[in-house]
Design goal:
The chain is of the alpha/beta class. The chain has eight helices and eight strands. Strand 2 and strand 3 form a beta hairpin. The longest helix is centred in the C-terminal third of the chain and has 19 residues. The protein is globular and about 45 Å long. Pfam families: Amidase_3. It is an enzyme of class 3 (hydrolase). InterPro entries: MurNAc-LAA_cat, N-acetylmuramoyl_amidase_3.
Length: about 210
């Protein structure tokens, strides 16, 4: 029953945002998207039982790159390998590209509660594209909820990668590495492929 309710909610969300195409991309022949893999190199991010956030999100970006086929979408990667890239360097790279959207990938953690789970989508109200960000967040959450009945929350926060770029930007906390079930899913080939396909479906609908 809960799964059905979530699926129904997803349909509602998709219906609400189906016609919310922003003017940023509606008249452009080619859409530029930056995929930002969080952390890297000396910065592991979450590190639970040897599963490192930096590696999980990098692997997902590589899966996105592998599965991408839309010739009308140009993908750029702010961290093309597993080396450390500072936030300032990422912001500079993004602002040079001037993309239509930035998607920053992360994995969450809650050391006091391993039952905590779900996906969180963040946008910044300081970003001048905050209206577009909220619409994009709704579209993306609908795809994830509908495809896997996943719990998704949309939140605002002024993270550097969201607030300092001159482009619409979302940060995706894809799940909790501290939750055993989600840790297994996020580090698995099957889970990473499903996440990559959901992100590409979203990108192709922009």
């Amino acid at each position: 029953m809960k799964t059905f309710a979530k699926a129904l909610f997803a349909i509602c969300i998709l219906g609400c945002f189906a016609f919310a195409k922003t003017s940023t991309t509606s008249t452009k022949e080619t859409v530029k998207i930056v995929i930002d893999a969080g952390h890297g190199g000396k910065d592991s991010g979450q590190n639970i039982e040897g599963i490192k956030e930096k590696e999980v999100v990098y692997q997902i970006t590589q899966k996105i790159k592998e599965l991408h086929q839309n010739k009308n979408v140009e993908l750029y990667f702010s961290r093309p390998n597993n080396e450390f890239v500072s936030l300032d360097e990422r912001v500079e790279f993004i602002n040079t590209i001037q993309p239509d959207l930035v998607i920053s990938l992360h994995a969450n953690g809650h050391p006091q509660d391993e039952t905590k789970k779900g996906m969180e989508i963040y946008f910044s109200k300081k970003n001048k594209f905050s209206k577009e960000n909220f619409e994009y967040g709704g579209q993306l959450s609908g795809i994830f909820i509908f495809s896997s009945a996943q719990q998704v929350e949309i939140k605002s926060a002024n993270f550097t990668i969201l607030s300092k770029v001159n482009a619409p930007a979302l940060m995706l906390e894809l799940g909790f590495l501290t939750n055993p079930e989600e840790r297994t899913y996020l580090s698995s080939k099957e889970g990473q492929t499903k996440i990559a396909n959901n992100i590409l479906k979203f990108i192709n609908e922009i």
